[in-house]
């Protein structure tokens, strides 16, 4: 650490200026070297310099032998030095969780998560310092534009059931967690679904990201026996482009992410999404996603009614141990 300080002193020169009472020892375009306050820990430094308490793990990456109790100076990164998020002992891989419906009482089918279970799951994320990120932040991560803390997770909800607004949304708001809601317009306003007024309300919340789940929730794989190429491409255009028009008309939203109904896709659909304004396509294949994951074949892990806290926690592994020496 002393050698690192010497390098930055040579590059930038000593500085007596302070940030929130902390002395800036040196800085350049890459790092700022600071003398922490006696009461500082990595969390307080992460809040002050990186904006999120969970980003403490990012500071720890650049200060492996740091001892704050001995008055060590701290190197705060100004940019992402490892855009691939690949290390000698493995690589970072972000879990994307997928929910559908919620219930006030015990769940009555596998696709419904009870309010009690969802509350416990979100409380666990907060209590164990997980950072719930948006799909936009995840996309920036895959592009090498943003470093993420080791404990990062994305929350998505499919279809557009009203139980999202009535049950999940208040819990997410309680913890300040972002979520992406994938809707299909043919469902909105029908039965147990949200209506467009609900969707508009949610769209105005910066913690909620409304995205496309097709128009009708049809299986978008080619139909076996009878659907020719022209008919298939026309069906895809209806499911993607018509939904775009509806979202623009109803909530002035240009979708950037597409959740495949039933998780099924095809090269033709991927090509269509790529030609439009879509940056990511999401399946329901279980697993997490490294920076080098295919952007149109992203994994998502379904959370079911019978997932207790133990099984839920197993879905959160954000680092794949691999010896890459």
Tell me which oligomeric state these chains represent: single chain
Structural class: alpha/beta
Low-pLDDT runs of 5+ residues are 1-18
Query: Mean pLDDT, nearest integer?
Result: 93
CATH architectural grouping of the largest domain: Alpha-Beta Barrel
- The CATH H-level superfamily of the largest domain is Glycoside hydrolase/deacetylase
Helical content class: 25-40%
Total tally of structural domains: 2
Gap between N and C termini: 24 Å
Instruction: Give a short account of the largest sheet.
Output: 7 strands, mixed
Task: Please report the first level of CATH classification, the CATH class of the largest domain.
Answer: Alpha Beta
> Which descriptor suits the 3D outline?
globular
Number of strands: 18
Q: Could you say what the CATH topology of the largest domain is called?
A: TIM Barrel
Q: Measured on Cα atoms, how large is the radius of gyration?
A: 23 Å
- How much of the residues is beta strand, in percent? 15-25%
